[in-house]
From TrEMBL:
Entry GO MF terms: electron transfer activity; molybdenum ion binding; molybdopterin cofactor binding; oxidoreductase activity
PROSITE patterns assigned: MOLYBDOPTERIN_PROK_3
Cofactor section: Mo-bis(molybdopterin guanine dinucleotide)
Residues of the Molybdopterin oxidoreductase N-terminal domain: 12-52
GO biological process terms held by the UniProt record: anaerobic respiration
Every Molybdopterin oxidoreductase domain range: 56-510
Organism domain of life: Bacteria
Name of the protein in its database record: Dimethylsulfoxide reductase
UniProt entry tagged with the keyword ATP-binding: no
Amino acid sequence: MADGSGRQTRVTSSHWGAFEVDTEGDRIVATRPFAADPDPHDVPSIVPAAVHHRSRVARPSIRKGWLETRTREGRGSEDFVELPWDEALDIAAEEIDRIRKTHGNEAIFGGSYGWSSAGRFHHAQSQAHRFLNAAGGYVASFGSYSTGCAQAIMPHVFGVNFIQFLYEHQDGWPTIHDNAETLVMFGGINPKNSQVSMGGVTEHETAGWFEKFRAKGMRLVNIGPQRTDAPEGCEWLPIRPGSDTALMLALAYVLEEEGLTDHAFLDRYTSGFERFRPYLMGESDGTPKTPEWAAPLCEADPGTIRELARHMARTRTMITLAWSLQRGEHGEQPYWMSVVLASMLGQIGLPGAGVGYGYGAIGGVGKPLIGLNGMTLPQGENPVGRFIPVARIADMLLNPGAAYDFNGRREAYPDIRLVYWAGGNPFHHHQDLNRLHEAWQRPETIIVNEPWWTATAKRADIVFPATTPYERQDIGRSPLDDYLFYMPALIPPVGEARDDYDIFAGLSERMGISETFTEGRTSDEWIPLLYAQYRENAAGKGIEVPTFEDLQERNWMRLPIRAEAPNRTLLAPFREDPEGAPLPTPSGKLEIFSEVIDGFGYADCPGHPVWLPPQEWLGAAGEHPLHLVSPQPGDKLHSQLECALADIEGARPVALAIHPEDAAARGIADREVVKVFNSRGACRARAALTGDIRRGVVAMPTGAWFGDPGGNIDPDGNPNVLTLDVGTSRLGQGCSAHSALVEVGKLEA
Ligand SMILES: Nc1nc2c(c(=O)[nH]1)N[C@H]1C(S)=C(S)[C@@H](COP(=O)(O)OP(=O)(O)OC[C@H]3O[C@@H](n4cnc5c(=O)[nH]c(N)nc54)[C@H](O)[C@@H]3O)O[C@H]1N2
Ligand SMILES: Nc1nc2c(c(=O)[nH]1)N[C@H]1C(S)=C(S)[C@@H](COP(=O)(O)OP(=O)(O)OC[C@H]3O[C@@H](n4cnc5c(=O)[nH]c(N)nc54)[C@H](O)[C@@H]3O)O[C@H]1N2
Ligand SMILES: [Mo]
């Protein structure tokens, strides 16, 4: 709507939900919550300051030393030279051509991991992949930082890919509400994290469901290092991070010891319990996994463990695991063991019972919706066909040609000469950033499309300024949400920014691959075309969506796709008829023992779930005695919008939650700026004393922009200067961000 003052208000969508935006001329001036959101949050309020921030990349920029002599030296410290678009595109196209002709396309790393922005067409990572495919392919990456480890292990257990499991098996909130009596939440369920969803979540419901759970008298148990990982009013069992498998084993032991195991379920629906049981009971290794055995490992009282096991067996119980549990060393084990525990309870496949993953991790999990496909820009074929597990990037760059294991395959790391990144911030998301900084010196050329001068952009050789979603039109839609948005171009591009599509179109033209990349279309021609396909798909499912022009006019609409019944297409039919609807596993059943995994011969992930302590956890604490967890930030998405948040007086360095007794032992006062350190690095943080974190654990959110390389102290507090860069195991090779030991001390010390 326009009013007399020239101010306009429209709605747009983002990963953190829809919001109203006021513009005046070429500026965003204010934002307001979207009216239909029952639980909006204030992330959008920082958008105006971030979009017009001084840290926007104004013009195409090439690092001075690279421009002059193509030297790799100076990444992260040297100045950039601004160039006109044509010149910069000529240089970049020539360089990509040189690399692919000299070294082949397997010398190009284009995994380009990252969340980019919401909006179906201008999804930067998809654009980068389509471009690199048109150019002859690239080395890709498997899985996500979010769930890479689960994506590798869980198909062995359930037979389907993990993402499909999340959305096709897991019960919706209404089913849990109507049926579950007990919710046992490993790592909690945090409404703060469900503010966010890939592509946007419009109605934030998680907090509301917990109010209903409490009103109904459900027993809600939060198991993990922070009380605040679950809404208020939940019981809290503050176990050590990384010890969940030990606790689950002890719960399983009690079931078996007290005759509470559902053996009929195990016989009918699972395979391999007889191979697991001797381990559980200690017959194979001399160590029965009793509550007394687990007590010192997870620091939970044996009586509490026994009581919880009996209660879980007596009531309809849903076990949930945060994704964080598999972002730690041996993250495969709690995920696999949770299936064994739920199987022993015998409730898998019943409504509101069994096991589920990532409720609360992102807003869409638990929303029962009818799936609607479409609105995806085709990415073409990747002729290279090589990939690395996503979190193994530093290993790859540091060790070209070296062999590594992944999920039964033995591969060699490719020799990467050129890295192209669009829509991600590896100097936010990767572990042990000082190590990544070293690895990052190896490629000949690094090209980054970015709206802002992030730590990654600053470490590139060529930086192309990209638009933000507020500067281009798009369609906002997520398969996990029941709203549809026309996202208008609210303001013109800031500085000389261009859409990723136009950047890649410009490169394609110069490389003679324009026809493959653009197919002769501009983005304004692609968007209505993809939308029309989506509309047709929806019509096929009996769902009417407006024409593109109508949607432009309406700005947004609610889709009638709430499913009445839960989306339980996998395990409910299996429970009903295990022979007729077997699981696509080798045994057709839930695999408690996996012959396939056993056949890999991995000591760090054997044929059934086992307790394997991480190399860094409280059970191994020495010189660095505190366990650092680095959860997702509540004030933003990852490192996005950080530039403007960091401007707020007193907001940086970021808060470090620490128990008052741990603080007192170090003479640290509340709000004091401290140094957090280990042998990998050091950063500043502001101590936040709280009894809501267990002793011995400190928590620091991700997302502060990484500052100085090398031995210096990172000023704003990026926890990834401290985290451990190892794979979860040879099976999953996921990221191990949550397994890290640190010490906290006075800043001047
Ligand atoms: N220690 C620790 N580390 C972690 C985690 C943890 O739990 N602990 N979690 C991990 C997880 S789960 C994840 S998913 C990752 C997230 O890591 P990332 O997804 O890499 O983080 P973002 O900050 O979202 O990075 C997106 C980047 O894309 C840019 N961008 C946005 N829109 C556009 C666009 O239209 N075009 C272009 N070219 N760029 C755009 C943004 O400015 C930003 O720099 O972090 C991981 N890192
Ligand atoms: N506001 C906001 N929400 C987000 C994001 C964001 O950046 N901002 N990012 C989104 C993304 S990409 C993802 S993948 C999800 C991630 O969702 P999750 O993986 O669920 O989230 P985390 O915040 O990493 O961790 C949740 C909690 O797990 C606990 N924890 C850590 N290690 C352990 C352990 O070993 N055992 C137990 N029991 N608990 C442990 C920590 O106390 C932590 O607070 O969040 C999404 N939601
Ligand atoms: Mo993630």
